[in-house]
Amino acid sequence: MRENAPHASTGTASLPMSKRPQRPAPQASRPVAGHVRVIGGRWRGTRLPVAAVDGLRPTPDRVRETLFNWLAPVLPGARVLDLFAGSGALGLESVSRGAAAAVLVERDPVLVASLREIAGRLEGGEVVEVVQADALRWLSTRRGPFDVAFLDPPFASDAWQAALAGVLPAMAPGGWIYLEGPPQLDLVLPAPWQLHRDGRTRDTHHALFRHAGNAKGGPPVDTLGSGPDTPPAVQADT
User: 80, 81, 112, 223: least CB-packed within 10 angstroms?
Assistant: First the structure.
């Protein structure tokens, strides 16, 4: 029986049913477990929500501050890749501190929507590209080159080797790669990548590597220097 046809048992016509306009389904949201903040640069103080998602574990503030002190001389004008972006803290911090552009890759649609909303309301946020994609599949496109890359996959994943294999060809000569993993993980890159700085906390092992060369083909310049409390760069294991 078609809608609004005469009812067979009574012989009377049913009243037309008024239909309310269909509203688009709202974007799903997840509980927020907390917030982190951009800690330096033009967007300093911007709150970034940390959704209650399994495996989402933003880089601790102290580690992030140390990392960006290491990277301060090389960020201005850099093209940045934040793989497994999560809260976007590393990619957004980079642009806040002078990077020319950043690509944030995240597969979770709710996190992607949040990142796009944040970038859309920040002055100058149009240089932040948020890509919804599986990181490993996206890497197969071999986009780039990138001057700085942040590689921080979920600790429980087995994505390390595949991610590194995809990231290394996408890096510019003289580039920098930051790795973060569980404290027991050995973080090494093949030559010509060199370990520049590393550190450990109770929960993480983090390391910054640089490519032993620059865009002009000359030797790398140690713009970050080494002091009495920081060991000189050493060659990473192959």
Answer: 223
Residue 178 parent element (H or E):
strand 171-181
Strand (E) or helix (H) holding 137: helix 135-139
The span from the CA of 79 to the CA of 170, in Å, is 11
The chain-wide mean pLDDT, for the chain, equals 79
- CA pair distance 145, 168, nearest whole angstrom: 10
Establish how many alpha carbons lie within 13 A of residue 108's alpha carbon, considering only the half-sphere containing its beta carbon: 21
Report field, pTM of the whole predicted structure over 0.90: no
pLDDT in tens, 118-149: 999 999 999 999 999 999 999 988 778 999 99
Residue 51, SS3? strand
Q: Which domains, and CATH codes, for the chain?
A: 32-218 (3.40.50.150)
